[in-house]
Predict the structure of NAD(P)-dependent oxidoreductase.
Amino acid sequence: MTIVVTGATGHLGRLAIQSLLAKGVPAADIVGLGRQVDKIADLGVTTKQVDYADVDGLTAAFAGADKLLFISGSEAGQRIPQHTNVVAAAKNAGVGQVVYTSIPRADTNEMKLAAEHKVTEQLLIDSGLPYVFLRNGWYIENYAVDTAIEHGGLFGAAGDGQISAATRADFAEAAAAVLVSEGHEGKAYELGGEAFTMTELAAEIAKQSGKPVTYTDLSPEKYVEVLVGVGVPAPFAEILADSDQKAAEGALFVPVTDLEALLGRPVTPLSTAIAAAV
């Protein structure tokens, strides 16, 4: 069985390949795609340099794929044309099954970041290709623990919203579990880890580091101002603030049920993840 992984040179893609190898998939049966394939040369898998903008290149790279782990593009605002190319190429190549990394409740989530995922899920449904949606929650690694320790605080606009973040390694292992087993076709898995509020995250960072760290909740408008002030481009700052605002309303809370079922074990505790980050 040939498994192709897009975005293989990114953090999640690399971890997914490592999880596949750990589950006994031969390196010869894995193809890692990306723009800087030298980053995964040490994994021993077949690599192909390809870009989401190149439909023909993608079609050739997908040839013979029994399963495709389609890791969503990292460029917000560019995903729809990029993902359209990936889906078209997968259909052209006759891929056996597409496993797509989405966002929690993509079909109903009103977060700005969710819009592109909703479109991509519909593209896959309309394509007629067998699919699985891995609706990944936030990565714990999204939070700059070192910066929080250095400055003694976290800032945001998430209020007391519960955020079901998990480690990239947990999401990658769950993806690998789907790729090496059957019975997942047409399913959408809502994946999230141990839920916490931003205040609880700050307290955990303080506990693990032994240094004072607090959370300051801001209005979305003020949060945009703060982000722009530290160099975040305004359009992306607005997306981040919107994500926090929706998180305050519960958009990023996901029970651990699906993730733990795919992992076959408990999710990595927040305390463990923060201890590793510290």
Q: What stands out?
A: Strands lie at 3-5, 30-34, 46-49, 67-70, 98-102, 131-136, 153-156, 188-191, 214-217. The two ends are 39 Å apart (CA to CA).
